[in-house]
Amino acid sequence: MPTFEYAPAPESRSIVSLRESYGLFINGEFSPSVDGRAFKTISPATEEVLAEVTEAGPADVDRAVTAARKAYEQTWSVMPGRERAKHLFRIARIVQERARELAVLESLDNGKPIRESRDVDIPLVAAHFFYHAGWADKLEYAGYGPAPRPLGVAGQVIPWNFPLLMLAWKIAPALACGNTVVLKPAETTPLTALAFAEICQQAGLPPGVVNIVTGAGETGRALVEHPGIDKVAFTGSTEVGKQIARACAPTRKKVTLELGGKAANIVFEDAPVDQAVEGIVNGIFFNQGHVCCAGSRLLVQESVYSEVLASLRRRLATLRLGDPLDKNTDVGAINSAAQLAKIRELSEVGEAEGAQRWSPPCELPVKGFWFPPTIFTGVSQAHRIAREEIFGPVLSVLTFRTPAEALEKANNTPYGLSAGVWTEKGSLILWMASRLRAGVVWANTFNKFDPTSPFGGYKESGYGREGGRHGLEAYLDV
Amino acid sequence: MSAPTQAVPELRGFLHGLPGVDRVGAEARAATLASRSIKTTAKQWALDTAISMIDLTTLEGQDTPGKVRALCAKAKRPDPADPAVPMVAAVCVYPDLAHVAAAELNGSGVHVASVATAFPSGRTSLEVKLADVKYAVSAGADEVDMVIDRGAFLAGDYQLVFDEIVAVKQACGPAGTAGQAGGAHLKVILETGELVTLDNVRRASWLAMLAGADFIKTSTGKVTPAATLPVTLVMLEAVRDFRESHGRQVGVKPAGGIRTAKDAIRYLVLVNETAGEDWLDPRWFRFGASSLLNDLLMQRTKLMTGRYSGPDYFTLD
User: If we measure between CA atoms, which residue out of A339, A287, A313, A274 comes closest to residue A397?
Assistant: First the structure.
């Protein structure tokens, strides 16, 4: 037994009042679907059913798009920017006021540790609305002409890894620019989006400006392919992203895609080792590795390989895996059985291909979906675990000898979403950053997000940027 | 990391060859660990452990034998109402009052710590510093808290700092002195508030450990900032790495500015998740503090009874 055993410190669930079932949020109110289909959303940590959620069919999507069109034409696009700003500010403040409730709900439905939903997700959600509220009446200064126009109705499909944060990344810029939206949250994590629908009501947002339709892939397809939308924004897998790109190619729809990644986290021999180890951990075990920009490929300079690996192993042994609502949990649950199966499969492939698998001693809960923090060493560029996105707490470790080799290996991937560089040498950071084919390059840090900073990918990681001045372009007719 | 020799270029090369510390990352790590939630049984253990790690300190010009005697009484029995409260680790005083503390604490198990080497500035000759140390040890101090020459350190004269620590360690007496295996226990105060950068903190930590420090200590308490979580994090990494490479365990003592039980528990979490549980022991981790003790006692009473009592229910010394 450890000398200093942390007693359980669970965040109370009582702040969340779950309804038994949720309707679709269309034209400012919750309504049932036309064909009455529904599905259940569960807590991935316990497999407990949390609520029943309505599945939107094509007729429901059509209703939502019609409501959004009407709101766009009659209300939102003609409203002065400073008035739109007030609505966004109000939403941001309500998110802050209800932060604890939203954090608990997010951890319940998604499985991520409360420390992350409380300290990262929800504060960033509020920050995105505050930031874009500021843009709403200043669009003529954004560099897109003297009076940039919105696009119209945006169809937005978001993933399950940062449910409410991805919603904020999508809805905040769309509304700031004068568009209305129909958003589909992921089928495994619809609850915070539905709580957000309540926040829209609470903020007095005009009906139809934000519509939330819940459902799985078919609902998403109906939305993306609906002829009444002018803009498609998608965050998710590269596979689905390609389907969307194909579906939208013969249409007038403007498309932005934020897809997968296989980021290199590059540690040079003169790196600040202790902070680099923290950065490696944060890069791949943050949110159980369910992060498109996760630093899933660790590239370590051979001259410090054994020191870095020893430090990393020691650090992994201190990670606390378990109840997502416990305030001391570092690693929560895998979001779904399907995702767990995929992580298991790719890990087995890694072993079969000859890489060495290691996990710290770690007891997994019996119920729910869990995977221990895992490191693969002896990985080569040719291995599938070095090329394919695992989207789980699995790190592939590779080595390099020179900066040029590090660069070559880092760029040798079909993806290009993010990269990390660890060195105390400023000139090397600049040299690497200007040559890495990745949308975000972090220097001596990893997985840091800010609404002022554009985010997006190269190559198969997608196109378009979200956040910052650049992110506005995706929602303006320019 | 190989052991350096004592010649100047090697020592400098070794210290400058240590991995850098990224300030932003170190502060972020310390802040994350500070958000740990320590409740119920864990809190109970932490409060008692923190009490047992205190170097109860008075280092004022106005200190008198009476004040020191009162402090010693408090050290032996922190809460007169509850004999289950552990004793603190040591009482820390100026050298001229060490004999008073030694007489009061004789046989109690509470150590007598004395600052020395022209504390807090250290601005005098080596002869005077060594005389200061010998005086403290002869008066009954079994722990000596020395200050390093920060001026020499900042000027890059690492060898001078190193040699002084070696000399002070020698002045602490041969094995057996003051009942300690290696003479009086030597705590080396880095005064991190004057070293300023975390790179300097790491280098000074290694310098002190290589020169023979039994403990490395953040501050005199006379300079702001005194102990901080990021500084202590870097020092804990240093003792952890030093044990790995040199096979000798060195203790850590944050001092100054730690006033509340909440602060103390944050430090214990830092120890637990950085150096590891081997350091969760008064032999390897201390708090240099005075007012901290009463807050720990108050929180302890709150935890046991479910009620807060006022400061008047805890003795002042």
Answer: A313
What pTM does this model have? 0.96
Instruction: Give chain B's domains with CATH numbers.
Output: 8-37+113-307 (3.20.20.70)
Length, in residues, of chain A: 478
- Per-residue pLDDT at B312: 87
Encode pLDDT of B200-211 as tens digits.
Answer: 999 999 999 999
Angstrom CA distances, A303 to A121, A268, A404, B194, stand at: 37, 9, 15, 34
Instruction: Please give the residue of chain B at the shortest CA–CA distance from A425.
Output: B20
Q: Are A449 and A455 in contact (CB under 8 A)?
A: yes
CA-nearest of B267, B240, B227 to B33 is: B267
pLDDT band at B176 (very low <50, low <70, confident <90, very high): low
CA distance A227 to B171: 87
Catalytic member of B217, B241, B263, B295: B217
CB atoms within 10 A of CB A477: 17
User: What is the pLDDT at residue B181?
Assistant: 61
Contact status of A318 with chain B (Cβ, < 8 Å): yes
B35 chain-A contacts, CB cut-off 8 A: 115, 119, 327
Which CATH topology does A264-443 take? Aldehyde Dehydrogenase; Chain A, domain 2 (3.40.309)
Residue B310: pLDDT band (50, 70, 90) is confident
CA distance A333 to A474: 33
- Fill in the amino acid letter for A422: W
Q: Is B145 labeled as catalytic in the residue annotation?
A: yes
The one-letter amino acid code at A420 reads: G
Instruction: Quickly state the pLDDT bin for B1 (edges 50, 70, 90).
Output: very low
Nearest-angstrom CA–CA distance, A408 and A310: 26
Read off the pLDDT band of A1 (50, 70, 90). confident
Considering only alpha carbons, which residue of chain B is nearest residue A423?
B20
Architecture of the domain made up of A13-259+458-475: 3-Layer(aba) Sandwich (3.40)
**pLDDT digit string (tens) for A188-205?**
999 999 999 999 999 999
Mean pLDDT in residue range A173-197: 98
CB atoms within 10 A of CB B49: 21
Which of B2, B16, B21, B22 best probes binding to A when mutated, by most A CB atoms within 10 angstroms? B22
Q: Is the pLDDT of residue B17 over 90?
A: yes
E-strand stretches of A406-448 = 418-422, 440-443
DSSP A418: E
Interface probe with B: pick from A6, A268, A445, most Cβ of B within 10 Å: A6
Could you give the residue range(s) of every CATH 3.40.605.10 domain in chain A?
13-259+458-475
- Cα of A174 vs its chain's centroid, Å: 17
In angstroms, what separates the C-alpha of A2 from chain B's closest C-alpha?
8
Is the pLDDT reported for residue B142 higher than 70? yes
Q: What is the ipTM of this complex?
A: 0.95
Distance, in Å, from the CA atom of A260 to the CA atom of A439, rounded to the nearest integer, reads 12
